[in-house]
Amino acid sequence: MATDLLESTDPVAATEAEMPLARESSRRLARYTKQSTPLSVTPEGGKASDAVVLPASAVKLLVRLLSEMAAGNAVTLIPVHAELTTQQAADLLGVSRPFVIKQIEDRKLPHRRIGTHRRVMFKDLMDFKRRIDADRSKALDQLAAEAQKLNLGY
Q1: In this predicted model, what pLDDT tens digit does every residue of 108-141 receive, in sequence order?
Q2: CB contact at 8 A, 119 and 85
Q3: Rounded to 5, what percent of the chain is helix, strand, coil?
Q4: Distance between CA atoms of residues 115 and 128, nearest Å
Q5: Coil, strand, or helix at residue 85?
Q6: Which of 4, 25, 42, 148 is most buried, by the most CB atoms less than 10 A from its CB?
Q7: Which parts of the chain are beta strand (E)?
């Protein structure tokens, strides 16, 4: 079921004309992210009976979504419990499929098998990404410190 959702959901990008609208909508909705009560939204030109009530958590997500669209980034929604193919995982990380498979085989990235196919939980993939990003940042900090110590002008 989750895989069907991923395969049928293409990233959505705002057009040049929609980017300013996304920016303004994000800015105006942001003031409601501090509250924990639902937000009632009425479509422009709509009646009070047309109002849609949004959970507070959905408002926060909507603000993030609109901010990304305003910046010109394509967005997609993936449920945390979604299972990804190795190719989908590679695409999300911006790496090759063989790299993902090597990480799986080295037991750095949890997975499960369905027949002969490997599946990676989205949550596990994001945990893995946070770990490698932290490792990368640490290595860069060490390189910068070494350059400072050697007075290389960085």
Answers
A1: 999 999 999 999 999 999 999 999 999 999 999 9
A2: yes
A3: 55, 10, 35
A4: 24
A5: coil
A6: 25
A7: 39-41, 52-54, 83-84, 112-114, 117-121
Provide the CA 39 distance to its chain's centre, in angstroms.
24
Specify the length of the chain in residues.
154
Which helix (H) or strand (E) segment holds residue 42: the answer is: none
User: Which strand (E) or helix (H) includes residue 37?
Assistant: none
Q: Enter the tokens of residue 35.
A: 């509250």
Residue 120: count of CB within 10 angstroms of its CB: 24
Reference 78, options 110, 118, 122, 12; nearest CA is 122
Encoded tokens for 40: 């009632």
pLDDT tens profile 24-33:
999 999 999 9
Are 28 and 70 a contacting pair, CB within 8 Å? no
